[in-house]
# Entry
Amino acid sequence: MASTTASAERTGALPALRRLYVLRFAFAAAWAVLLLLSGSELTLGTRLLLFVYPAFDVAAAVVDARSARASGPVKGLYVNMAVSALTAVGVLIAGTSGVADVLRVWGAWAVVSGLIQLLVGVARRPMGGQWAMILSGGISVLAGAGFIRSASQDNPSLTSLAGYATLGGIFFLASAIRLSRATTGR
# Structure
């Protein structure tokens, strides 16, 4: 009976997770376009965009944890909330110093949140649709290291962050599609 209840709760959480993943795709795509339009100058608008991305990640992790509470591990999501909240504040502070400092903060966040995403994806493998999250987490770790490295180059640029967000959004969309198939049995 407990197994049946857990399975039903997990299946009930899938539509909420699927909707969240589609929303995360749409947000990432829109954010990337806005960042590209703003350029690499650290204007007030650009700094606000840089703050909004990890702040949105906090909100998404809260929604994810609430929908997944009965169906799977959420500890990693709580850690991600804390890390993303610190990053949101960190990029605001780094934005007053320059692009290189923003890239360092963003890179550290990408590494840590990527590891968390990878671990949560592995723990959720029985749900289905998690291969993209696992792959995305691994790529995030590598991208984060690249952001940190690029911060030490001459004239560092924020445009690579738009590519990072776009790719992450695509992985969320792929997971949403896979979750749709897991729900319908296709």
